[in-house]
Write a structure and sequence with these properties.
Elements (H helix, E strand, L loop, with lengths): L1 H49 L11 H48 L15 H5 L1
Helix pairs in contact: 1-2
Length: 130
């Protein structure tokens, strides 16, 4: 019985850890997308300021070129994080399924302290008098 409880705690910990990681990844993706938008606005401003929007033009702003590279790196990072996020969501689903199995196993082995009654049925008076 003790090992079942330990197994149950372990599975609950795994589920909570996966949920936390999924949540953290969501927050990281949102933060990176905000940074991407800020950098994109900066590139547009710089291109508008200089009047040159062609990256291959000799007069293209070095600041815009640098920021454009950072923005592209952020997009690559976001794509990688989304892949990891999908994998973590799958791992969370598996951990939740494992937890349900262990919970059912523990429920079956736990001695019942009260008899299970069908919803809406009352115990007969004779049974209560015993």
């Amino acid at each position: 019985m003790r090992s079942r409880e330990s197994l149950l705690r372990l599975n609950r910990f795994r589920v909570e850890d996966c949920r936390r990681q999924v949540s953290d990844m969501d927050l990281m993706i949102q933060d990176l997308m905000r940074k991407h938008d800020d950098l994109d606005n900066h590139v547009k401003f710089e291109e508008q300021r200089t009047g040159v929007s062609d990256v291959n033009n000799v007069n293209y702003s070095m600041a815009a070129k640098s920021v454009r590279g950072r923005r592209d790196n952020i997009l690559a990072t976001v794509a990688e994080l989304r892949d990891q996020h999908e994998a973590m969501v799958e791992r969370l689903k598996e951990a939740e399924a494992d937890l349900r199995k262990v919970e059912m196993l523990v429920e079956k082995e736990t001695p019942m302290s009260k008899p299970i009654m069908a919803a809406g049925t009352a115990m007969p008076a004779a049974a209560l008098a015993r």
